[in-house]
Amino acid sequence: MQPWSVKYQPKSTEFTQGQNKAVEEVKSFLGSFPKKRAALVYGPPGSGKTSMVHAVAGENELEIIEVNASDVRNAESIKEKLGPAMMQMSLFSRGKLILVDEIDGVSGSADRGGISELAKLLDKTQFPVIMTANDPFDKKFSTLRKKSAMIEFRTLAYPSVLAVLKKIAEKESIEYDEVSLETLARRAGGDLRGAINDLQTLAENTKKLSKGDVDELSGRRQADTMINALMRILKTTSPEVALPALEDVDEDTDEIFLWIDENLPKEYKDHEDLAKAYDVLSRADVFRGRILRRQHWRFLVYINDLLTAGIALSKKERYPGFNKYTRTTRILKMWMFNQKNAKRKSIAGKIAEKTHTSSRRAIQDTLPYVRVIFKKNKAEAEKLAEYFELDDAEIDYLKK
Ligand SMILES: Nc1ncnc2c1ncn2[C@@H]1O[C@H](COP(=O)(O)OP(=O)(O)O)[C@@H](O)[C@H]1O
Ligand SMILES: [Mg+2]
Description:
Blueprint: H1 4-7, H2 20-32, E1 38-42, H3 49-59, E2 63-68, H4 75-87, E3 96-101, H5 114-124, E4 129-133, H6 142-147, E5 148-152, H7 158-171, E6 175-176, H8 178-187, H9 192-203, E7 208-209, H10 211-235, H11 239-242, H12 253-267, H13 271-294, H14 300-312, H15 330-355, H16 359-376, H17 378-388, H18 392-399
Parallel strand pairs: 1-4, 1-5, 2-3, 3-4, 6-7
Bound molecules: adenosine-5'-diphosphate and magnesium ion.
Adenosine-5'-diphosphate (ADP) binds near residues 9, 193 and 196.
């Protein structure tokens, strides 16, 4: 099975979405070589860096020598792998382009010196070198930056992501509704590779993409990150491990409280530990209340510390075993109850007005009969609905 992100990798810059400016800059870097011997192409994952370098090389009939930087972490292996490629003439007298992909992981420390070795090689290379990175502004890259043309790939805009997904969906004969595809594109946050992978996961076998699938996938993702965070907090006794646990979590604070509340008793079996942990949770809740009422946002950091290190240190020691953490259902139940209640109240209000009585009386005395009529007598129900001026949602409620 071939990943669609590879199958649909653009063969030429004609077929690339967005990134026009960056593509022009890559081309002009190649044109001006050897004035600058290297370019540092940077931007978020899935924005098209690697595939664009390939596309430009293809157009210029350049042979690509590609090294993934994760294979050449230290000075030794960089010299070994890249040195010869940078010096030799191409066998078929075709031009060459050297791609050092994803240099973020190369060691910058003086003893292992991968980066400084790379920087030295840049002075001598016979062929243009393109490096890619997610974040090139780390201090360890400062010499590389000075020697390179800096080319930024911006986060891909949503319409570009959508356009690529559409093209792929059509080529793969996938039945999709517009909204699902749009949702998938929007949630990718500019990571086109991620979006393509999601589309393949959801639609390759079924040849269909539905809104339900898309929502389920993103719900599952959020739950996964929350469960990982909970695992870190509840399974450790070290504050260093616990403190950053919530950094990647996208749920809002209210949801996080509910997750912890729901899962604490599964993990903390000792009642003293459990009491301590709930005490911490309730103190965090006090700060949350102050933020809501008085907008004291600086309390946010206390909330984080309490929910992570505070909860983690409430136990005397780590509990063994594996517990399945789950999302709380409490809020959902409350919400459903309130919704129902709200309908009942609004209907009673309307009945009360027409029958000149209180809402409370209407709920007690009139509503039960109205409900029976709505279940048994359609014609009569329609008349009543009109008389009481009920809306569709209220009518639905009475029919149930
Ligand atoms: N601008 C683009 N136009 C068309 N397809 C793209 C674009 N950017 C990325 N892709 C698709 O997404 C995949 C991942 O892109 P890639 O170049 O590997 O991103 P990066 O190297 O920035 O992480 C590519 O294989 C290609 O299928
Ligand atoms: Mg890449």
